[in-house]
Amino acid sequence: MSDAPTLIFDFDSTLVGFETLEALAELALEGAPEAGAVRGEIAALTDQAMSGVLSFDQALTRRLTLLPLTRDHVQVLAEQAVARLAPSVARNVETLRAHAERVVIVSGGFREVIAPVARHLGVPDEQVLANDLTYDDKGRVTGVDRANPLSADGGKVTGIRALGLSGTVVMIGDGWTDAEVRLAGLADRFHAFCEVVRRPRVVEAADAVAVSLDEVLHAEGLSGRWSYPRSRIKVLLLESVHPAAVAALEDAGYSVECETGALDEDALIERLKGVHVLGLRSKTGVSERVIDAADRLMAVGAFCIGTNHIDLEAASRRGIAVFNAPYSNTRSVVELAIGLVITLMRGVADRSAAMHEGRWNKSARGSRELRGKTLGIVGYGAIGSQLSVLAEALGMRVIYHDLSERLALGNARPVITLDDLLAEADVVSLHVDGRAGNHRLIGAGELARMKPGAVLINLSRGHVVDIDALAEVMRAGRLGGAAIDVFPEEPRTNQDPFDSPLRGLANVILTPHVGGSTEEAQEAIGAFAASRLLGYLNRGDTTFCVNLPNAQLSDVQGAHRLLHIHQNQPGVLAALNLALSEAGLNILGQHLKTDGRTGYVITDVDRDYQAGALDVLKTVPGTLRFRALY
Ligand SMILES: NC(=O)c1ccc[n+]([C@@H]2O[C@H](COP(=O)([O-])OP(=O)(O)OC[C@H]3O[C@@H](n4cnc5c(N)ncnc54)[C@H](O)[C@@H]3O)[C@@H](O)[C@H]2O)c1
Ligand SMILES: O=C(O)CC[C@@H](O)C(=O)O
Questions:
Q1: Which of the four CATH numbers 3.40.50.1000, 3.40.50.1240, 3.30.470.20, 3.20.20.20 does domain 6-219 have?
Q2: 257, CA 20 to 30 Å: which among 123, 184, 446, 488?
């Protein structure tokens, strides 16, 4: 006899994602004018019965009376049932099949609807306890077989008792009648199943609360589809990350919490307790102190391009993977840059402000076209080079300066020094990355070297421009205009105040760090960054990771995958493989990726090994992080 527990499952809102009578009501009332009202009544009766407020027998009879049900309706739902399994049940079908001789289904619902699901899961007929519908000779439902104990109050208790189960018995369900099985002493544990619906009274009576079947399997020592219940992996998303990301992470089974604003260091440390994955945009700093205090953190997703606000060194030292979305808002920044160049060159912002104050100032003085002017791009990376293409299409001459060798697009021309660029450009647009060395890249000296009347745009990072020096130059009237989107100090939330020496200056456009804030870009970033985090969590894939060696990995199939992040020091791979061999693990495939400071070994092993065998891998000298996936 196996030590495995007997798992007794409720059916409605547990094995499947629907309540049978509500689903039948949908079918039977389709197109009927009273449908809405009847459906509402049925849902209320279901809820009262499931919460234990109304007796099961009364609720069943009253709901059946409300419906013009036929055999055809029941047949249709029966055909849909397998496709409507609860999500975590659907992904654990193999596990349930392997365990089917110890699975029981008990339900106040109807055998005809349950039978296809039981067959799909391999559960024998005698382990399905359910009501039997009765029909008249025209195929209309007349009620349920009253001789069946499931039709009466306490029917689940009576049915389970009659089975005379031995060994450990575990009840899993969402309703009060499931809790009653445990209260009657017929189950050793009751898991309140809340994936589909959560009922407070049922949760209170439970030994454990499970938001997925993965949690139940894990708690009961059974290997499910996932190595660890994903619902226990906590994801914290800050700064109003797009709902597309929330949906992607939740759909994959992870628990997601969101905050609209950024957090300061202390608040972040507090909030990160127990959090496995952090998502943020550009305003939440992740310092070494934050990283060291984060007890569970395994990955950070920057839902933006820049990662200068995250201590990447500290993250690498702890084996924490950091991802960003390097191209999803590139075009948004470029479009705004083009718009700002035109707006500054024509003095549009000040003219508009004057109009709002009732002043009409029609004049060509100081208004200039882009055509034939020279655009100087500082930082010819993803954004700078895209801007180059669009600016040329508008008739501008493009020169650029970059610290690295970059392919010149179109007729753009590289210039060796920043000073050469400043001396030649009518428009200077900054698109350098946020590295510390770019602090005040444009200060008083650089501003003085710009052509009189030239305009400056900064859409890169706030610390790149000396704002006091720029304010001085603008007040003196030496430059033609400036557009600044990023600031050395930015408010954490939209409720916090903003101040700057640039406020109120003529032909200075100030925008609240919105270069990448378009609906299109935010949705794309949400989807991209979430996909990177999911790739890492689910497969160990580090493609586009900015601080660990990049490894592009397929899904784990037919193997268990061991992910080992370590300091890049001699002998780690040899020690790891020795440990694997001594633990009796058979290697099916292995990759090693390293960068200057970190190594990442991905090993797919045969699934046949002792549970404790992996512990030794954590003790290999140099180990920063170890995780197993299956
Ligand atoms: N305003 C916004 O909302 C917004 C949106 C997206 C990106 N950004 C910022 O825009 C900047 C550019 O983004 P990207 O995707 O093009 O980055 P990128 O890494 O592709 O390009 C940056 C380029 O700057 C060069 N560079 C760095 N320092 C330099 C220096 N001192 N002189 C000359 N060249 C230098 C690099 O070699 C690189 O080619 C980043 O700072 C990013 O954070 C801002
Ligand atoms: O959306 C943001 O918070 C900033 C976006 C931008 O600065 C980036 O680095 O992508």
A1: 3.40.50.1000
A2: 488
Task: Please state, in angstroms and as integers, the Cα–Cα distance from residue 180 to each residue in 128, 170, 171, following that order.
Answer: 18, 13, 10
- 139-171: pLDDT as tens digits: 999 999 999 999 999 999 999 999 999 999 999
ipTM summary value: 0.99
Asked if the model's pLDDT at residue 362 lies above 90, the reply is yes
CA pair distance 544, 558, nearest whole angstrom: 26
The residue to mutate among 259, 281, 386, having the most atoms of ligand 2 within 8 angstroms of its beta carbon, is 281
Question: Mind telling me the catalytic residues?
Answer: 461, 490, 513
Nearest atom of ligand 2 to the alpha carbon of 329? 10
Go through 287-304 and write b for each residue having 16 or more CB atoms within 10 A of its CB, e for each that does not. Answer: eeebbebbeebbbbbbbb
Q: How far is residue 91 CA from its own chain's centroid? A: 19
| Ligand 1 atom closest to 308 (CA) | 43
CATH 3.40.50.720 holds for 233-329+518-547: yes
Q: Where are the domains of the chain?
A: 6-219, 233-329+518-547, 336-517, 549-629
Instruction: Return the SS3 of 254.
Output: coil
d(CA 195, CA 14): 8
